[in-house]
Each structure stands twice: as structure tokens, then as C-alpha cells.
Amino acid sequence: MLSFKIVVVSDQVYEGKKRDVSGSIAERIIVSRGYNVCGKTVIPNSYKEIVRAIRSSDRCDVFLFIGGTGASPRDITVDVVRSLAWRHIPGYGEYFRLRSVNRTGLHGILSRAELYVLGDGRIAVVLPGSPDAVELGLEILFGIVEHLVEEVKRYEGPHQKP
Fold first, then answer.
1. Contact between 25 and 84 (Cβ < 8 Å)
2. CA pair distance 53, 65, nearest whole angstrom
3. 55 vs 124: CA distance, rounded Å
4. Most buried of 49, 101, 120, 129 (most Cβ within 10 A)?
5. Chain-centre distance of CA 54, in angstroms?
6. Residues 38, 4: contact at Cβ < 8 Å?
């Protein structure tokens, strides 16, 4: 059974100014699909905290980052995860944006939702913070995640950038 670590990246949720809705929705959806949630945390939009979430996490197969995908200078989740990734899987973000445009209009192209393989072979997906985006992103991810994890685990040893 695959396990997911949910990391909500939001200054406002971290500071208690907003409630975590999307992380709770993600947890409910993941569990309803028969997967395990090995942890859930809320962190601020901070390079150090995003790196710490990846490096100090419980052993899990998939990191689900929620938030930090927009165009604002504070939206750094995609940039940080990309800097730590071994491989980028571009089709995921492309398909997410296509489906988003069909649902919400042209604003959907502004999302920087992405999917990566980290150097230790774990998967990292970065989704926008809205509940609808989390639902859509997980729907797409569930169609490919088991195969992706299987493919990545075929390689023994650390995944290093070429």
C-alpha cells in the first residue's frame, strides 16, 4: 500500500489566520482510495521549511505539497522541490493545467502544479491550495502513481541528476 505525506505550505494556515481545508480534503480522499497517510503537516512558505519537510519526513512513497504554485514571490514550493528533484515528469502539470482551463477558464494556465521524482526515489507532487485543485490533482495522480512508484523502484541506488 502506498503512503502519502501531506505538506500544506501556507503562511496564513501556519499562522492560524485560515483553517486547513485542502489538507483535510486530501487526507480524506487518499484514505478513501485505500492508501495510507503517513503524516500531515503545515509549514510556512519558506525554503528551509520545505527542504526540512522532505529531509526529515517519515518514510513515505509520495509527498503531496499543497500550496505555493502561483506567480506570487511567496509561492516557492515548486521552485524548491524542483531544485531537489532528480527528474521532472512534465506531462502531469501539462494535463493538470489543461483540465483546469476546462473547469475554470484561462486562469488555469497560471498554476505551476508539477510532479517530480526525488533523489531517494520518492515522488513529490505540488498542487495549488484550493480544494478543487487538490481534488483534480489527486484524481490525475491516482491514475498513474502506482505505475510511477513501480518504475522508480526498479532502479537500485540513489537517483542522481545526469
1. no
2. 10
3. 12
4. 129
5. 11
6. yes
Contact 122, 60 (CB under 8 A): yes
Residue 72: HSE in the Cβ half-sphere, 13 Å Cα cutoff? 11
Tens of pLDDT, residue by residue over 126-153, are 999 999 999 999 999 999 999 999 999 8
The DSSP bridge partners found for residue 127 are 66
**Structure confidence by residue, pLDDT tens digits, 6-56:** 999 999 999 999 999 999 999 999 999 999 999 999 999 999 999 999 997
Please give the radius of gyration of the chain, using alpha carbons only, rounded to the nearest integer: 15
Strands 36-43 and 3-9: parallel
Would you mind telling me the total number of residues written for the chain in this entry? 162
Q: Do 66 and 23 touch, CB atoms closer than 8 A? A: yes
Query: Nearest to residue 77, comparing CAs of 36, 133, 121?
Result: 133
